[in-house]
Amino acid sequence: MKMWSGRFGQPLDPGFENWQRSFGFDRRLLQYELAASGAHTRALKNAGILTAEELIGILQGLDQIGTKAAESTAFLEDGEAEDVHHFVEKQLVNLIGELGYKLHSGRSRNEQIATDLRLYVRAAIDQLREELAELCGAIVERAEQAGEASMPAYTHLQKAEPVLVAHWLLAYVEMLLRDADRLADCRKRLNLCPLGSGAVAGATIGLDRGLMAASLEFDEPTANSMDATSDRDFAIEFVGALSLLAMHLSRWAEEMILFSSQEYGFIGLPEAYSTGSSAMPQKKNPDLLELVRGKSGKVLGNATALLVAVKGLSLAYNKDLQETQQPVFDAADTLLQMLPLITGWMGAVEFRTEQMNQAAQTGFMNAWAGATYLVNRGVPSRLAHERIGKAVQLCLERGCELTDLPMADLQALSPAFGTDFYESLKLSSVLAIHDVPGGTAPTRVRQAINTTRKKITALREEVHAHA
Ligand code: ARG
């Protein structure tokens, strides 16, 4: 039986009927639909709509639906169910007879889908944050292993200053921890329960909304029935946070691809995550990285799809909102599949620290440190910059580095140069002068590793508290 056939005199066009169904994709919400239905059933009993016996009958029926779904996917092959809400009602009536029709008393599918989707997003957030903690942990591990190895840092993709490899890796951990934090923030806002909102104006039966919210581990009931049944901010915010995460992973992938090229030679691609070419026998391609970069585009597309789907809707529920489910599922699936693979890749990649160290010694990356040497001897910064620039120019003419310039040439540029200038240009000196919190001096990076580990532990604890 349809959920709404009474006022219709004619059957639906079969093509339209099939086309407007959402059961093909919202079946994945079944566990949340069952949990929310259980909460509603208990509230119906408390409101005097169901007897104690009926309550037990419906709860057992809901339980059986869950068991049957877990046992066989064929159970979900239902060509008639309009959506997951209709499916549960149909199956319940199959199992317990007409009593099943009492479940829908005083509620609407509008509040149900709003509730199910919130429960889905909440669970996805918890899983994603767990995966992010794993990935961050793997990156910090590699940072620790890199010790005091250094590499060039680039601005404008031109060699800028040397940094510790560990410092570079920790930059990605910062991005990912912010992503985890954004997801936690989204979770906080979405964790309110729409049940009892009815179709638009609130339930027509005195349901205990606080009880329903608590039994689904929501913080409290939503405040306004019109908002609760039509709000999809939480979904947009979720996919928005995932867009930033995907963007970060895409930048990461792009950089790893560059650094794995023969021209850089900084990293050796792990064979377990690469493929060869069917044509060129010598190739080892960075497939994992390329797919991370490629799939991130889809996630940004999903965020746009959601915004556009909702932006023109008058209050409250409109069927357009059915279209907000798939972009959410797709974005969550994409990242949930990707993150553990990236963690695996991070553990397996080879950092060629010798090549990286070598690259950190050339290309005048000590020029700013050289200018700082002059500044420390009282030369005004602008003039110091200009003097070192002249020194670089000399080097370019001679094909040498700053350390190769004789003292006589340096003295001709500025009397402030002394023999300790050469010491100040050494890689270890250059690294050490970046001695501020957040800088690349080895002592600072060691501190940063410790602080980062603590942040990851805190994240893990938060995730387990929700589990
Ligand atoms: N399948 C619908 C959705 O996903 C459920 C809500 C249907 N509500 C309605 N008034 N037709 O949005």
Provide the descriptors you would attach to this structure in a database record.
467 residues; 19 helices; 4% strand
Task: Describe the secondary structure blueprint for this structure.
Elements: H1 14-19, H2 23-26, H3 30-46, H4 52-71, H5 84-96, H6 109-146, E1 150-155, E2 158-164, H7 165-190, E3 192-193, H8 209-215, E4 220-221, H9 225-230, H10 233-260, E5 267-268, H11 287-311, H12 325-348, E6 350-351, H13 353-359, H14 367-376, H15 381-398, H16 407-413, H17 420-425, H18 427-432, H19 442-466
Parallel strand pairs: 3-4
Antiparallel strand pairs: 1-2, 5-6
Bound molecules: arginine.
Q: What does this protein structure show overall?
A:
The two termini are 38 Å apart. The chain contains 19 helices and 6 strands. It is elongated, with a radius of gyration of 30 Å. It has helices spanning 14-19, 23-26, 30-46, 52-71, 84-96, 109-146, 165-190, 209-215, 225-230, 233-260, 287-311, 325-348, 353-359, 367-376, 381-398, 407-413, 420-425, 427-432, 442-466, and strands at residues 150-155, 158-164, 192-193, 220-221, 267-268, 350-351. A hairpin with a 2-residue loop joins strand 1 and strand 2. It has 467 residues and is mainly alpha-helical.
Short description:
With 467 residues, this protein is mainly alpha-helical. It has helices at 14-19, 23-26, 30-46, 52-71, 84-96, 109-146, 165-190, 209-215, 225-230, 233-260, 287-311, 325-348, 353-359, 367-376, 381-398, 407-413, 420-425, 427-432, 442-466; strands at 150-155, 158-164, 192-193, 220-221, 267-268, 350-351. Arginine (ARG) binds at residues 22, 26, 83, 109-110, 113, 317, 319, 321-322.
